[in-house]
Fold:
Amino acid sequence: MQKVDFEGGEIPEGWTQEYVDSDIYGEHPWVIEKAEEAQYPDAVAANGSYFLALRNNSTATIGYTTRLISPVMDLNQTDVFQPILVFSHAQQQRTGDFDQLKVFYRSKASDQWVRLDGRNGNPEFNHKIAKWQRDTIQLTSQSDTYQIMFEVTDRFGRGVVLDNIEVRPMPTCEDPYGYIVSGLTTTSATVSWNASFDTDSFEVALSKTAIESIEEVDPADLVYYGFLKDDQFAFSSEAVGITLSRNQNYYLYVRSYCQGATSEWTGTSFRTKNFADLPLVQNFTAGEDFEYKSGALNHISYWSFGTSIKREDGVTMEYMPFVNTNTQPGTATAGYYAFDQSFCLAFTGARSLGTSIPAGQFVYAATPELNVPSL
Ligand SMILES: [Ca+2]
Structure:
């Protein structure tokens, strides 16, 4: 394996440089720079105080290409599980111009260099990169005489910088596990979990319905979708600024992102609390206590309802009792049910009003849990 951070203040032993067409362009070497004296990308290294840079310090494009070649590495297939190259780099622009980095490998010295595909299928860093970024590239055709090569072409930008170069096996990216729901209230919840310490971040999706395949869900249909930093190992609805609904089932899905790898999605579910403070007043007022739909069997969302009455096919009658929203308030008909001709909760034996509850059957409505100490 290989890990180079240039903190020794010089290019480590075994790394070599190659000047392409040096008879035309001359020799323009990679040099170590001290972060505090550097300007581009800014006066910091990706790690420590030193990094490697290839810059055109003249006043015009030269167009040279210089290669930085690693020592021969033993990435024997039986010893190294899925090797990856992880490195930090940047290429700041100079009035629209930037230099270009490409990354290659070869399995043995007599092979041609082969270009490596970067993350997101981006095979070259052919755009300005104003700040240090860390990229992971999966290495293919591993061998016991493996080499990687960074090739930069001068296009009169502010140079290309490299730091913290690492060749290592793919980290294990454990599925999140051991979910614990805490801090459950009527409007918030916190869920924590365990995962491997190689995790960089967590992708999180929160839904009101169970989800078969997250990839096929439109994020707009989710209650929350986003990435959490690795040091949290927890999702807090309050921390991400969302208010949950009372007495509602939620399904939380999480997967780990590690360097160059993702875990499977795992998850848990919870139901928000259903407390009500006293005094409890419920007038079954449309728009206030429930969303009015004319003729629909409306319900107060945070009350519980049920019945023992079954349909002819044996299925329990759903949605009973209900608010009598198929009668117009203020009419004589409404007055049959509520003395002030307003909406009320109707206990009946069928989906239509005026049907008796059959003998021996029941229909019920239950309030939320009452917060008695609030008396
Ligand atoms: Ca460094």
In short: The chain has a mean pLDDT of 89.
